[in-house]
Design a protein that fits this description.
This protein is an alpha+beta fold. Helices cover about 15% and strands about 25% of the residues. It has a five-stranded antiparallel β-sheet with strand order 4-3-2-1-5.
C-alpha cells in the first residue's frame, strides 16, 4: 500500500483517506482522528530515525485542525530538528499541526489499525480517452463490465 501511495504522490495525483463511523464526526478513534471524516494525503515519505528508515504519511485535516494523538504526534518526544528536516514541504509537525491541520502518521498506524479505514487516489487517464468531466467511482461499471 505505501509503495502505491508513494508512486501516486510522485505522479502528483490527488489522494485522500477516510474514517468510518455512524455519521458523527464529533467522535474520535484510537488515534484521535474524527470518525466519518475525510483527510488529504499530502505526501508519502521516508524518515530515518536511529539508523532505521521508516515509512510515513503527511496528512491534513481539511478543517485546519487536528487532534491526532498516536505515534509521532506533535508532542512525541522523538521529534528533533534533524527529523523535522526530513518531513516534506518544510512542515514542522510539532507546530504546524495546530495551525493548519497537518500531521504525520507512521505507515504501521495508517490503514486497518486504528487511524484510517480507507484511502483513495485520483488520477488522470488521458491515454484511455478520459476527459476532465469523466471520473471513476467504485462499483460503477456502466456497459464496460
Amino acid at each position: 500500500m505505501w509503495t502505491l501511495i508513494q508512486a501516486a504522490d510522485s505522479a502528483n495525483y490527488l489522494m485522500g483517506a477516510g474514517t468510518a463511523g455512524n455519521g458523527n464526526d464529533q467522535e474520535t478513534n484510537g488515534c484521535g482522528i474524527a470518525m466519518s471524516h475525510a483527510y488529504s494525503i499530502v505526501s508519502a515519505f521516508e524518515m530515518t530515525y536511529n539508523s532505521t528508515t521508516s515509512k510515513f504519511f503527511l496528512m491534513r485535516n481539511p478543517w485546519g485542525v487536528t487532534y491526532y494523538s498516536s505515534d509521532w504526534n506533535k508532542t512525541d518526544s522523538r521529534w528533533t530538528d534533524d527529523l523535522v528536516a526530513q518531513v516534506p514541504h518544510g512542515v514542522d509537525p510539532r507546530y504546524d499541526q495546530a495551525a493548519n491541520g497537518l500531521f504525520v502518521v507512521p505507515n504501521d498506524k495508517f490503514i486497518g489499525v486504528s487511524c484510517f479505514d480507507s484511502y483513495e487516489i485520483g488520477h488522470y487517464r488521458d491515454s484511455e480517452g478520459y476527459v476532465e468531466t469523466w471520473f471513476d467511482k467504485e462499483d460503477d461499471c456502466d456497459d464496460n463490465c
